[in-house]
């Protein structure tokens, strides 16, 4: 089989494809993080890691325990980032959507 030739894409097409790949990757990473958070929350609600592993089928209890720990860390990180965003971007307690409007003079 002959080697594939590289196709020179126009810049706007290349940029669009790269943006699409980045968006898809970000969505996949976020979905995996959300899954781990759900597993952590399920264990917090009383489900056993053995029970979750059995329901998932081809996943060991050790893997579920690791995912639960990672889910806890991810959730804590997100909460910390949210607090930092709220404190850093809004030090005066203003509405972040509609900052203080200037009043007309006169």
**Contiguous uncertain segments of 5+ residues:** none
- Please bin the fraction of helical residues: 55-70%
Strand content: under 5%
Sheet with the most strands, sense and barrel status:
none
What's the total helix number?
3
The overall pLDDT average reads 87
Strands, total number: 0
- Write down the secondary-structure element order: HHH
The shape is: flat
Structural class, judged by helices and strands?
mainly alpha
Q: C-alpha Rg, in Å?
A: 23 Å
Give the N-to-C terminal Cα separation.
80 Å
What secondary-structure arrangement, pairings included, does this model have?
Blueprint: H1 11-44, H2 49-56, H3 61-89
Helix pairs in contact: 1-3, 2-3
How would you describe this structure to a colleague?
This protein is mostly helical. 67% of the residues lie in helices and 0% in strands. It is flat and about 55 Å long.
